[in-house]
Amino acid sequence: MDYVIEMLDIRKEFPGIVANDNITLQLKKGEIHALLGENGAGKSTLMNVLFGLYQPEKGEIKVRGEKVKITSPNVANDLGIGMVHQHFMLVDTFTVTENIVLGMEPKKGINIDLKRAEREVQEISDRYGLKVDPKARIADISVGMQQRVEILKTLYRGAEILIFDEPTAVLTPQEIKELIQIFRTLIAEGKSIILITHKLKEIIEVCDRVTVIRKGVGIDTLDVEGTTPTQLASLMVGREVTFKTDKTDSNPKHSVLEITKLNVKDSRGVNAVKDLDLSVRAGEIVGIAGVDGNGQSELIEAITGLRKVTSGKIELNGKDLSSYKTRKITEAGVGHIPQDRHKHGLVLDFPIGDNMVLQTYYHKPYSKYSLLNNKEINKQAKKLIQEFDVRTPSEQTPARALSGGNQQKAIIGREVDRDPDLLIAAQPTRGLDVGAIEFIHKRLIEQRDNGKAVLLVSFELEEIINVSDRIAVIYDGNIIEIVDPKTTTEQELGLLMAGSKNKAGETENV
Amino acid sequence: MFNQFSRWQKILIPVISVILGLIVGAIVMLVSGYNPIEGYTALLSGSLGEGFYIGETVRQITPYIFAGLAVAFAFRTGLFNIGVEGQLLVGWVASVWVGLAFDLPKVIHLPMAILAGAVAGALWAFIPGLLKAKLRVHEVIVTIMMNYIALHLCNYLVRYVISDEQNTTDRVPESASLKSPFFETLTEFSTMHYGIFLALAAAIIYFVVLEKTTTGFELRSVGFNQHASEYAGMNVNRNIILSMVISGAFAGLGGAMEGLGTFGYGFIHGAFSGVGFDGIAVALLGGNVASGIILAAALFGILKQGALIMPLQSGVPTELVEIVIAIIIFFVASSYIIAYLLQRLRKGAK
Question: What is the pLDDT of residues A257-281, one digit of tens each?
């Protein structure tokens, strides 16, 4: 079979590092090809080279057998290469059609011919089973549909080769199923797909072949048929990886967090958390499963004092925190690994060392009489860097320069080291690779074993099932069911998350 | 400003900008028929050539340091204080007013007058700080408007309150004056005064507060990332106000230096003095760090002072210095271009 894309011996250097060290990737026509690698392995760099955002130092790219030079994304578009980014590039206030035609609007005189555009969008949507309403506003549609708009955008521009960057990270299990169906339709229509991911299960499920990259070096390209997740994981990480998180049964004691009748409004002033009750006991991990946007963020922000509580109680060891400011809540014994590590977790331009004392800088020994003691701060930073295996040149390195996994380890180190009675972990492994995920899960379980309460919020069902001792399913601002991770399945959880109760007759159990 | 650049780039970019600015200035001189060597020689001798000129240059540097520190302090907390000019004016008038209104021994009177300048500047900056913190009104808009209010309010105060419908106030008495007979004799009777020591002390305070205290930690943290600061339990609004107040205090002190030192009185300003606005350029060129601001202020002082003598000695018009300054600022502001060229150069060398 012919190759539609060949990237041969691609080498891309950045000051101080080789991001791609002579990597070869060959995409056959009509296949789904996975690009697998840890964070910072060089996947995105390689795809950015293909998409024309970076120029390689060495190597050549062939499209349909012809040698090409891709100098900009426009060139890539002309060659029929389209990319669906992990973070959608859509204008929220525009309609689906307006977003799709943006930059190449069909004209009628000097006006945009929206009618024609809508018709064209509808046509493509029907053909590939994308089920997109061309007139809907982006702000009003679900994340899954936004992603389909991104797919439509590339198809509208005539893409034959589609690159997907971590497409399932933001989707619910049902949406993932739909996406996989879309993949199959695309292939049937003669398109080829490169899928960047570190989710091994997906690879096994949909991909034909996989290219594994480790630390900028192409390790191997193999047929997916006949491989196992374990095999792929060890290829990617370079050592044996265990998937099942080892843990003993939980031994919960007294209640640490007790939430009763909590109501919280979201930024638009709409009730996002509605009469929610939840308790987390010492020595257990409670996982909150739910589709994004069902009140998880607002719940966490309310507990940590970042959002005002409309009514209800949040008690930590019997003390009501609902009217406290963030600092008092932190000092009362709440640790928080925030969902967005760049926005909330770190001051990216601060040295990683300063970030390690972001909540404690005003305490002894880090400062005395309001004067910072940099020696102590650096000592603490060095300790955490060592203990939590944060890979950084030094504690003076800006947090921005660290890879996502190491940034996350730094945050976790900081929060765990404060030894909080309640540790809230929101999406703690988002975008991280197998090795880092394993490490973080171990740390969470360690906290539990030390008799602390852990509240885990995640959109990854596998993570919720693996790590939690109890799973609370959140839907529309309420906990609609508590299930036992040992007996539940992803299917059951998926249905619950979609708001339907499968066990008829069972009373609401909160 | 240069956070994404490495340490050597942070130093090289302003230095290269200055050199480029001087080169382009020389080309402009050549094109317009002047001799650049003569021009720059006149500039240098007019700013550093004689004791008198050195004294005048140092005097000129003093308010630039304060204005630069004021702009930079706010900037480090993520705020654009465009109102340094106005804060400087109210500081000027307040210090003169206190100088004239009281009759006290110098040990009390002078510090009191200086402090009045700082407090007035701080209060003037408090208003935009408060509006930003409470109502999210953008500080650039408010500080610009506050400049005009300051200008006309100060003129009113000088004419109708502090003086008797005059264009200038009386001279502040010796007990509230920064004038230094010692420096004046040393520099052949220039207007150099003790203010430069206060300016250098202010730069040290700037460094210590921002880099060494928990307050500075919070201010910088808020400047970089308000969300993370809030997450860490810092009071973002309080820090915004505090930053503006400290920034305004630096500006007000700069005004007090003019009021109690350079001039020794207040007068009706037909237009802005420009020192406050030049402070933006000083902060930018100095990379918002104390040592950089002192060097940038020194450069500005030398250029501005030398520009006065340049036409007399070489025929090159004063405005040429404005061109040089503008080009320096242009290159600093477009630092990406220089960083890019530096990178290219390094790659080429390899």
Answer: 999 999 999 888 889 999 999 999 9
- Report how far residue A178's alpha carbon sits from residue A173's, in angstroms, rounded to the nearest whole number: 9
**Contact criterion met (CB below 8 Å) for A100 and A153:** yes
Of the candidates B217, B227, B228, the beta carbon closest to that of A372 is on B217
State which fold the A3-237 domain adopts.
Rossmann fold (3.40.50)
| Cβ–Cβ < 8 Å for B92, B256 | yes
Tell me the shortest Cα–Cα distance from B212 to chain A, in angstroms.
5
Query: Domain-by-domain residue ranges, chain B?
Result: 72-293
Find where tokens 């997906």 sit: A202
**Helix, strand or coil for residue B350?**
coil
> CA-to-CA distance for A291 and A498, rounded, in angstroms?
7
In percent, the amount of chain A with pLDDT more than 90 equals 49
What string of H, E and C letters represents the secondary structure of A277-310?
EEEEECCCEEEEECCCCCCHHHHHHHHCCCCCEE
Q: In angstroms, how far apart are the furthest CA atoms of chain A? A: 73
Q: Tell me if chain A has a CB within 8 Å of the CB of B231.
A: yes
- Mean per-residue pLDDT of chain A: 88
According to CATH, the topology of domain A255-497 is Rossmann fold (3.40.50)
The two structure tokens encoding residue B315: 């025929």
Tokens of B217: 């930690």
A285's tokens? 């991990």
Question: Chain centroid to CA B167: how far?
Answer: 25
Please state whether the predicted TM-score (pTM) of the whole model is above 0.80: no
A455 within 8 A of A472, measured Cβ to Cβ: no
Q: Which residue has the tokens 């060597």?
A: B37
Q: For residue A162, what are the β-bridge partners?
A: A82, A193
For residue A342, give every residue at least 6 positions away whose Cβ sits within 8 Å of its Cβ, in sequence order, or none: A348, A407
Average pLDDT over residues A22-49: 88
A338/B231 CB distance under 8 A: yes
First to last CA, chain A: 57
Tokens 């190491």 -> residue: A406
Contact B224 A350 (CB under 8 A): yes
Task: For chain A, say whether B239 makes contact (Cβ under 8 Å).
Answer: no
C-alpha dihedral (A487, A491, A493, A499), degrees to nearest 10: -140
CA–centroid distance for A476 within its chain: 21
Q: What is the pLDDT of residue A231?
A: 85
Sequence letter at residue B89: L
The DSSP bridge pattern shows strands A192-197 and A17-28 to be unpaired
Pairs across A and B, CB distance < 8 A: 67
In terms of Cα–Cα distance, which of B86, B144, B106 is closest to B276?
Answer: B86
**% of chain A residues with pLDDT over 70:** 96
pLDDT digits (tens, 9 = 90+) for A267-321: 888 899 999 999 999 999 999 998 888 899 999 999 999 999 999 999 999 999 9
pLDDT of the residue at B5: 63
Distance between CA B256 and CA B122 in Å, rounded? 13
Using CA atoms of A475, A477, A479, A481 in order, give the dihedral in degrees to the nearest 10: -20
ipTM for the predicted complex comes to: 0.83
State the nearest Cα–Cα gap between A390 and chain B, in angstroms: 20
Burial label for B344, CB within 10 Å (0-12, 13-18, 19+), is exposed
Residue with more model confidence, A106 or A382: A382
What DSSP designation does A392 have?
Answer: -
Q: Do A359 and B212 touch (CB under 8 A)?
A: no
Cβ of B231 within 8 Å of Cβ of A348? The answer is no
Which of A343, A352, A358, A369 to mutate against chain B (most B CBs within 10 Å)?
A: A358
Mean pLDDT value across residues A121-149: 88
pLDDT tens for residues B213-248? 999 999 999 999 999 999 999 999 999 999 999 999
Given CA atoms A452, A455, A459, A462 in this order, what sign does their dihedral have? Answer: positive
Distance CA A368, CA A375 (A): 12
